[in-house]
């Protein structure tokens, strides 16, 4: 009889642990962190195809998004209604003037120094003043990225979080370069 009670107690405690773990996991994933898989080459060479990243969903709500941050966001529904997250680098902030010409990106009439870009852009864009609560985002693989030079500014409300570090593949584990 004691054996049956201890078995029931064990099963009940195991069920409690599993429910708690599920609730904790769901709570963390919905508010603090997310894991994303990168399906495209738009962020080459910084992020490779099929890299897996951890996204910080909390700190950008407490601190400002900065130029150079790699962010994860929900794309405009007019561009992609799949529900998948996209990832790009923040180039222009609210109030900035952005222009792309002669293979350079200009912010407020000053050329950016961008060690992370794969190649110089072979297109022109702007000038454009970025409205309040919006960002101008570009892929590091400038000529092969569906980004703000194609569809315009990204509303701040679409930002999910900052890409923090790569956890897969293991030989590339670490923080993302800014």
From TrEMBL:
UniProt keyword annotation of Lyase present: no
Membrane topology: Single-pass type II membrane protein
Main subcellular location: membrane
Record: active site: 42, 88
Keyword entries, A-Z: Hydrolase, Protease
MF annotations from Gene Ontology: serine-type endopeptidase activity; signal peptidase activity
Cited Gene3D superfamilies: Umud Fragment, subunit A (2.10.109.10)
Pfam family, one: Peptidase_S26
Record-given protein name: Signal peptidase I
Provenance organism: Desulfosporosinus fructosivorans
């Amino acid at each position: 009889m004691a054996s049956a009670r201890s078995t029931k107690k064990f099963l009940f405690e195991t069920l409690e642990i599993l429910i708690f773990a599920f609730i904790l996991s769901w709570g963390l994933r919905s508010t603090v962190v997310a894991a994303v898989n990168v399906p495209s080459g738009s962020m080459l060479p910084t992020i490779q195809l099929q890299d897996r990243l951890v996204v910080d969903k909390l700190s950008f709500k407490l601190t400002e998004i900065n130029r150079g941050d790699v962010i994860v966001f929900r794309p405009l529904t007019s561009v992609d209604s799949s529900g998948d997250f996209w990832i790009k680098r923040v180039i222009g902030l609210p109030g900035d003037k952005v222009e792309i010409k002669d293979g350079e990106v200009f912010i407020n009439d000053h050329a950016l120094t961008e060690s992370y870009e794969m190649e110089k852009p072979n297109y022109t864009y702007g000038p454009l003043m970025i409205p309040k609560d919006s960002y101008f985002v570009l892929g590091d693989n400038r000529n092969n990225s569906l980004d703000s030079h194609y569809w315009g500014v990204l509303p701040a409300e679409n930002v999910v979080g900052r890409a923090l570090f790569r956890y897969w593949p293991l030989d590339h584990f670490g923080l993302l370069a800014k």
